[in-house]
Amino acid sequence: MNPLLDIRDLCIGFDAYGQHRRVLHNVDLHVNEGERVSLIGQSGSGKTVTMRTIIGTLPMPPGKVEQGSIYYNGQSLLDLNKQDRNRLKGIGISIVLQDPMLSFNPVLTIGRQMDDVIRYGDLRLRNSRSRADRRTHMIETLNKVQLRDGGRVLDSYPMMLSGGMRQRVLIGMALLNKPRLLIADEPGTALDVTTQDEILALLNRLVVEEGLSLLLITHNLGVVREMADRVYVMERGHIVETGTRDEIFDAPQHAYTRELMAAVPPLYGDGVKTTEHEGTQPIVDVASVSKDFETRSGWLNRVTGSFRAVNDVSLTVQQGDIFGIAGESGSGKTTLAKIIMGLTAPTKGAVQIDGRSLDGFAGTQEFRKLIQIVYQNPGSSLNPRRTVGDQLAVPLKFTGFDKPSINRRISELLDLVELPQNYSAMYPHELSGGQKQRVAIARALSVNPKILVLDEPTSALDVLVQSTVIDLLHDLRREFDLTYIFISHDLSLMRNFCNRVAVMLRGEVVETGPVAEIFDTPGHPYTRALLSAIPVISPEEDALKPIVSKEERAAVLATSTELEDT
Amino acid sequence: MSAMNDPDAPVHGLTARQMALYRFRRNPLAVVGTLIVFSVILAAVFAPWIAPAPESAGSFVDFRNRHSPPNWDNLMGTDNVGRDVFSRVIFGYRVSLGLVVGVLGVAVPFGVILGLCAGYFGGWTETIIMRFTDIMLALPPLAMALAITAVLSPNLINAMIAITLLWWTWHTRLIYRIVKGQMNEDYVEAARVAGASHAHILFRELLPNCFSAVAVKISLDAGFVILFGAALSFLGLGVQPPTPDLGTMVATGSEYLPEMWWQAVMPGLAILYAILGFNLLGDGLRDMLDVEL
After folding, report:
1. Of A33, A304, A457, B109, which residue is most buried, by most CB within 10 angstroms?
2. Which residues, numbered 197 to 256 in chain B, qualify as contacts with chain A under a Cβ-Cβ cut-off of 8 Å?
3. Which tens digit of pLDDT belongs to each residue from B172-190?
4. Pairing relation of β-strands A230-235 and A36-40?
5. ipTM topping 0.95
6. pTM: predicted TM-score of the whole model, two decimal places
7. Phi, psi of A153 (to 5 degrees)
8. DSSP states of B92-119 as a string?
């Protein structure tokens, strides 16, 4: 049997800034009818270029197919003219893009946007359907993606739907014209882990029910394990390893695949490293802190209500702790961090750092020498127009260092975060993501603080880079006796990095305790739901995950299938 | 960790400057614009040495040679008192560029500082600065300039003051919008956490992020300032004779249209040439620095 999609010996090159660069090297990949195939690789490995070449949206120039061919159903895609190529879009091959926020036009209703897809599909197939027929078809398709209230969804604008619902609509849109091959680019990655879990289950079901073939493009090994029959591993434009899912996961052959597997922090099992620490001296004390945000709207921007982002949170962080605050988006974890940093005043409650109340203390030189923060995205937390050295100098300059001692300290700091000395004169865009985050860590450490607040410091980084940054943080903590407050949505990482964890849900801390206790015997249903939704990379881990009943889950989590009543 | 082995190193080991220069060179119009602007600046600076008849810049008369059409001795012909139009155009660029430097030299720093403050401090500072800017923008510029130069005496300095009074508003708005966007970036908060002063954040952190937009805006502005100055002079409210000014030359020359067309058209083309140069340069810079105005 011929494969449905067959890529043979594909080489793609780019011309940029007068230089030629080959980004895909002799890629061979095929997808059989009804098969689920995953293409896995880190950012910049060429997986998106591959996808765009298949669907024909790679800009050429600067891109150029130098060699090779792509066959869909026996037809050579690269030899088709533009019109015939377009005819396959949405009908033969359909695609689900990564970001459900960016994939919609915000000013048109969902119905209008889906209708366009059907009408263009019909035009290509030379069908014609009435408006009512199209609407029935849309509602049926929405039912397939488990959106029961199809009519209301169609009349909504994208911003009225939750992220999970938008992702579902996006999948529905891809199915409208009954394609045979579905390409999914990092589906659900932009969503919370519990929603991602629902989306992956949905895709798996659709493949069976609709008889689809799936090409899944992702960087997440856990997702691959749940979603693939066969796997291709891509590294810098080369397919370095391919095999069935079990072959790849049980006995990876290529060094790169093994490296990738090793870098994924295990959630359960023998591989888990537990950070042991029993602090005795409280250093951060959060006492029943609440924070309300006013919502304003209407005429003259009046206050129309308030929204409680943090609700009655109490925490104690001991000296030397790596204290994890876990939660999904909107759980209030970043607001809590800002309150601890003295950047936002709590509406109620009080925070004490090193035994001192924040009132009148936050923002002083002494306070800055005590607590500093590392932000999530170093692309935003570093000023693009200032050199690394300039940025490292800022905290020093405002803490009373003189010029020669600033320079000495900058060179010390670069050594600490294992960056070469000449990086001092570089601008952020000349550095890689991991290097930028190292600079941000160096800046936070510059005035020798005792506490570091780490706001998702590795979530913008690839997993291989993440592990090196985490190692660095471990080393620094040992060397300087630091206390970390680690904010993250990545529970696998927390299991291996933190010694204590607090789990937040809608502004409240639902559970807190030593890391092994929380993970091994989670008490709150939300913690259990969260843990059970994490895609893991071995059956052992899967077996150890808590089992959550539907009712339990429904009690704590909003589903992504129902519209909220407003 | 060397740059080559790093798994997530930037793709093409070029610095931003190299990439920008590459984009600029690939844009032929930008290169043409740069050459034009360069030639205008050269003409203005070295006018007495370049002009074939430097004496024509002043109140020189040569009635035997008046109204002579373009020829090899007078490339752009002569005017109603026999002065060489080409030489006067070259000297005219001195006045035009002087106007540009004078106006933008004051209006840009003033507008930029107000925009920075409005965007950074927010609240009442923002309300006062931005509403005042709106009021200034609501005044019809030419009428305002006419009023100012008419009340004061019409000369180059007053024309400059009039234009400056109106020009800063555009920069305030531009910078305000950029700063508002930058305020969402974590580096501003990071600087605050590091204990940086307001002055440091305004001028060391935010200002460098405005430079490319200001550079593009200045280049595009230069053309408009020349045009505006020429318009004022044309109406008799700017530079006074016998100083050679392009606007004044068009005004005087227009009395002899259409027979002796060169007296108005040549200075007009000279205005066009300079403005075209500045606009092409501005567009080129915009593509090169990748800013949106």
Report:
1. A457
2. 197, 200, 204-205, 208-209, 211
3. 999 999 999 999 899 999 9
4. parallel
5. no
6. 0.84
7. -60, -40
8. HHHHHHHHHHHHHHHHHHHHHHHHHHHH
